[in-house]
Prior knowledge:
By secondary structure, the protein is an alpha/beta fold. 41% of the residues lie in helices and 19% in strands. Strands 3-2-1-4-5-10-11 form a seven-stranded mixed beta sheet, with helices on both faces. Strand 7, helix 7 (203-215) and strand 8 form a beta-alpha-beta unit.
Amino acid sequence: MSQKQRKIGLLTSGGDAPGMNAAIRAIVRAAANHHVSVMGIKRGFEGLLHNEIVELKTGDTAGIIRRGGTILLTARCPGLMETAGQNTAAAILKEADIDTLIVIGGDGTFRGAMSLAERGVNILGIPATIDLDMPCTEYSLGFDTACNTGMDAIGRIMDTSMSHERCSVVEVMGRGAGYLALWCGLTSGAEIVLIPEDIEMDTDAVIKQIKNNRENGKTHNLVVIAEGVGGSNALAREIQRVTGIESRATILGHLQRGGSPTAVDRMHGTVMGYMALESVLANEKNKAVVVKEGRHVLISLDEAIKTKPAFNPSLYEMSKVMSI
Ligand code: F6P
C-alpha cells in the first residue's frame, strides 16, 4: 500500500489533558503534508467499539491549539479489558482499513493499546495525563497547565485566607501520585504537602506543625493535599478543633484539568504529535514518543508499559525544608 492510501487511526482516551488538541492538530497537519488520511475515533476505545470513526481534515483542527480538553472526546473503557472487547476493537480497525492507531492518553490507554498491538494493530503512543504518573516519560501532556491552574487557584484562596489569618487546606488532583501536589505546594509556598507516596504523615503531625508555625509567628498556613490522600474537609475541621485556628478546605477537582494549555503543553503536544506521525510513516510500530533526559525519543510500547513507578523523594524532602 502506498503512503497516500494509508489510513491512520487517532484517539484520545482516559482523563482528558490540556495539550491533547495540540497533538491532534499536529498529527492531522503532518499527515496532510504527506497526503495521508487520519481517521478520528470518538470517545476513545469506547467509541472504537461502537465504530465511531470520522475522517479528520485540517479544517477540523483550526483554532484548537488553544483549547483544553479533546475535540475527539474521551472515555474510560472497561470493555477493552476483556478479551472479547479487544478482539472486536482490532476487527473494527481492520474492517476500516486502519493499519496504525495513534493513542493519546495515560498508562491505562497504553495498556489497552498493547492488547491491540498483540492483535496485529500497529500502535504509536503519546503520553498525556495531568498526574505525570507515567514512569516511562519525564513529561506527559497536561501537567504544566494543571500546575499553573492549581497555582493560580491557590493564590486566590491565599489572598482571602491570609486576610482572615486562617489555615487553608487545598486538595489538588492526583489519585495515585503526588507530583501535582508537590509542584502546586512548592510553587505556592505551602507549609505542608501531603502526598499518597508518604503514608507516614498523619493528622497529628500536621496539627503539631501548624501549632509550631503559629507559635513562631506565622499567621497563615497552607496545606496542599493530593486527592489520593483525601479527607481535606475532615482535616480542616480537625485542625480548627484542636488548634482553634479557623480553617477552610477547598477541593479544586476538575477545575484543574480544564483550561487553555500553557505554551509548554502546546509545544510538547505539537512536537509529540508531529514526531508520532513521522515515525508511523517511517514504519515505526508499537512505540511511544516520550521525553527522556529532556529530549523527545521513541521507546518500545512494551518498555513504556513495563517501566515501574519509582518515587523520587527529593522534591518532597525539599518541600519540608521550604516550609521552615
Ligand atoms: O486524569 C487524571 C485524573 O484527573 C486524576 O488526577 C484523577 O484522580 C482522575 O483523573 C479523575 O478521573 P475522573 O474524571 O474519571 O473522575
